[in-house]
Design goal:
eight-stranded parallel beta sheet, 14 helices, Oxidase FUB9, binds 2-OXO-4-methylpentanoic acid, 13 strands, three-stranded antiparallel beta sheet, FMN binding, TIM Barrel, single chain, binds flavin mononucleotide, Alpha-hydoxy_acid_DH_FMN, 407 residues, alpha/beta
Length: 407
């Protein structure tokens, strides 16, 4: 039941072994930045642990000799219902950074999410992906011009979608990052921003345009009620990624006007039925149930526990949009459980970073291969041959006292 895309690595047969192998290959600052969650890390831990509440009800004697694990996403066939979640600054893990991830995604037939705070430009990453699909994660900046330009570049490069991250109105408190005084080493840069040659469609330098917009803001603030001043200066993730002004009415409509029809607009970071309904109401193309890998609001529900209410809300609408999930997926059985609870697709973050730190492109392929093999095995042992047949009849939920209930 294995395929021949990548050889097995006998030192590393699980994602948990990969995590340990990667830990030895990263410096402390990088390891802490990649691995930690916000505050005490309880949501990070629960994202993983919550999968244990669900157990699989296998069916037998079903001829599983031919299993198809593939699904459609962004008009392409993906080898498994799993993609690489956008994670920032991948050159911290390996010199080839996002290029290695892109090559591995292409090799494994898996869609790639690229962080807008990547250490490789979005054009170079798309070059490595070729015709293979990619989605650009977006932090919508208060200073809209930067975002507008980035969206135009993504469109031109051929990205299929933007994923607007909506769970970062402010950045979560990450104590190790604070203690380590995290900063990007001087040989690396956030490659999509702070480029001297950035200009707009009329050839006006963006930095000049922003300066004049900010001048305008200062002047109007003398006569109007006090307003926030958007961050100025070089774009860094601490200053620019969080945007406390983001809101449904103004920002989603604006983003759709910039992206459609060439690129879809998804929202990443939905955790409630109420927001899922608002997302449907505002016509987004898809939802990712996410708590940012436990890095934002500590104490938030594990994503697999938030998923059912989001799915129910979305399915109650006349237009059925896809619901994806990320956070804590470490096994093929986790992918199966998320799908059984109604997700259409899952994304993984840290396991890919661990693969990258372990062996660059080969390590990312290994991470994806382990998850693919485990998922295929799980489908076979559960008696399912097509992804669309995975439903809640294959799961039971166990409470703390061990009481088992059907879903
Ligand atoms: C080191 C790191 C950097 C991340 N950077 C981004 C980012 O730039 N944009 C974003 O929307 N999410 C970012 N995320 C969150 C991931 O997209 C994803 O939601 C999360 O990693 C999923 O959880 P998992 O790591 O348990 O799979 C980051 C996560 C990690 C661990
Ligand atoms: C704020 C980002 C640039 C990175 C991020 O989302 C993260 O570190 O979780």
């Amino acid at each position: 039941m294995t395929n021949s895309k990548t050889p097995h690595d006998l030192n590393c047969l699980t994602i948990s072994e990969l995590e340990k192998l990667a830990a030895d290959r990263m410096d402390k600052q990088t390891r802490d930045y990649y691995n930690e969650g916000a505050d005490s890390g309880s949501t990070l831990a629960e994202n993983i642990a919550a999968y244990q509440k669900y157990r699989i009800r296998p069916r037998v004697l079903r001829d599983i000799s031919s299993i198809d694990t593939s699904v459609n996403i962004f008009g392409h066939r993906n080898s498994i219902p799993l993609g690489v979640a956008p994670t920032a600054m991948q050159c911290l893990a390996h010199d080839d950074g996002e290029l290695a991830t892109a090559r591995a995604c292409k090799q494994m037939g898996v869609v790639m999410g690229l962080s807008s705070f990547s250490t490789t430009s979005l054009e170079d990453v798309k070059g490595a992906l070729g015709e293979h699909p990619g989605a650009l994660q977006l932090y919508l900046f208060e200073e809209r011009e930067h975002s507008r330009k980035l969206i135009q570049r993504a469109k031109k490069a051929g990205y299929k979608a933007v994923m607007l991250t909506v769970d970062t109105p402010v950045l979560g408190r990450r104590n190790l990052e604070i203690r380590n005084q995290f900063k990007l080493p001087s040989h690396l840069k956030v490659a999509n921003f702070n480029r001297d040659d950035d200009d707009d469609d009329q050839g006006v330098k963006i930095k000049d345009k922003i300066a004049s917009t900010n001048e305008g803001r200062k002047r109007s603030s003398e006569t109007e009620s006090p307003k926030r001043t958007p961050p100025t200066g070089p774009i860094t993730f601490h200053t620019h990624a969080p945007n406390p002004t983001l809101n449904w009415e103004r920002d989603i409509t604006w983003l759709q006007s910039q992206c459609h029809p060439e690129m879809q607009v998804w929202v990443k970071g939905i955790a409630t039925a109420e927001d899922a309904l608002l997302a449907c109401h505002h016509g987004v193309d898809g939802i990712i149930v996410s708590n940012h890998g436990g890095r934002q609001l500590n104490g938030a529900l594990a994503t697999i526990d938030a998923l059912p209410e989001v799915v129910e809300a979305v399915r109650s609408q006349s237009k059925n949009i896809p619901v994806h999930i990320d956070g804590g997926v470490r096994h093929g059985t986790d992918v199966f459980k998320a799908l059984a609870l109604g997700a259409d697709f899952v994304w993984v973050g840290r396991p890919v970073l661990w693969g990258l730190a372990y062996k660059g492109q080969e390590g990312v392929e290994l991470a994806l291969k382990l998850l693919e093999d485990e998922f295929r095995l799980c489908m076979g042992l559960a008696g399912v041959t097509r992804v669309e047949d995975i439903g809640k009849e294959y799961l039971v939920k166990m409470d703390r006292s061990g009481f088992v209930s059907r879903l």
